[in-house]
Amino acid sequence: MPVLRVALCQLNVTVGDFAGNVGRILDALNRAEESGADLAVFPELVIPGYPPEDLLVEPAFIESAERALDEVVRATKECVAVLGFVESVDGLFNAAAVASRGEMHGVWHKELLPNYGVFDERRWFATGSGDTPLFVIGGLRVGVTICEDAWSSDGPVVRQARAGAELIVSLNASPYRQNVLIERQEMLSARATEGDCSIVYVNLVGGQDELVFDGGSMVIDERGATTLRMPQFVERVEIADIEIASKSRGDEINTRADSVVTRARRAETETIRPPSICSPLERSEEVYEALVLATRDYVEKNGFADVGIALSGGVDSALVAAIAVDAVGADRVHGVSMPSRYSSEGSLTDAARLAEEFKIELRTIPIELAHYAFLELLAPSFSGHSSNLAEENIQARVRGTLMMGLSNKLGWLILTTGNKSETAVGYATLYGDMAGGFAVIKDVPKLLVYELCEFRNKRAGRDIIPQSILDKPPSAELRPDQRDEDSLPPYTVLDPILEGYIEYAKTIGDLEREGFDPTIVRRIFDLVDAAEYKRRQAPPGPRVTHRAFGKDRRMPIVNRFRASRRFDGAKS
Q1: Which residue is catalytic, options 147, 301, 392, 499?
Q2: CATH of domain 293-484
């Protein structure tokens, strides 16, 4: 079989950082050139970064993107580069450029534009024409597609294969969620066997606002077998020699191609670089690494030096602290303990032990004086009303004010500690524990929080997150002997209901058939629906589940529909 030397360039770029992105691309191209690669494949929209969103309506952004592409094209040598860019010609296109020897040889316009979940590509891009250009690279006919183009069984991949392509390169900016790597691999295997061709799939890596891209680039042969898989969550350029099955060049095959001349085929005596296959990560490690990468990139790409975390001694703040340390280093992580009259001694000692284990600074700022002062100030207005959540939430709001004061004065990015279960049902205080800049575990259900803590302890080989934190009943500690289960069902009941409703749009009937109490299900549905106004004011956080709050699930705030109640006609 013919062998093609390919550089899979799994890069971490930043939206709008044209100088930085070009520098990363040129570094990867130089490595590909020095390695004797025939072909270097880059991610989707690697020039401007993905997703650029409404920057695409800014003329200066498009002009900068065009100049950046020109710089990369001029720098190409013998190795053919296929890279994603924005092309403005009779419309705006999500495009892939094919270039070598300082010249552009052709362009592919993305044909299938996703407009679901976190994607809005039809908002900005025009649809490709459906042409099937092929390029001769290293003596082989190569087709080019972009991300969603590969997901349709009758789409561009199979069409290009039928036109004679022996290899399809697929440029991607496919965001992470649990189990998506397996789904991609199965989809690519199906496309390869349908088209009887090999596929080189290169994915973006890195964090971008609510999205985290996991890389996991791979090569699938014509039989659907995975012959190369790169690691997830790591920026890397992989050089590999890939065997490509040649197709007959008889009259039944359309052999039209834009000729691209590359370096001569390597001598038989030259060292072969066999592809490597990285094992997929186990679920806990995969989610944990996604959160670490998302946090690191949000901090670094936004120019923050340090981060601050309100350490309560609870499991959520413990996990956020662990992720922060692994993301940016212990010397840049600052914990703040803010005890009130209701804080247990165990919580205070657990916070101190956690800070000691992770070697992070811990400063203690008691809130009793501020809490008392607020109650005194509000006493005339609260007079005649029984004590309720208002008094409890003042404590959380004092803490939020203190954390934001430290942020303003010391330049910290405040990492909030609310998990998905709390965020879903509104079990969080607006302008209190929700105050901050990045919600690290916003899309992590409570049961998964415990699983990730146990994973981190296993990785450390000891209880770096103290076992006492994992063993204590969850509590906000805003009143005496408070427990989460005073207000909510056990998380073993709550989390599956939330997953069914939020991620898979299951009905009360669906969940009742699965064995859940319909009265509890209705209550949880109502709590989720009523908390939308809170979620809209929460900081962004990385998406790791099938359907996250934010870009993935967009609900109106002014909304009287409730999924727990059916419409039976207007009332007379």
Answers
A1: 147
A2: 3.40.50.620
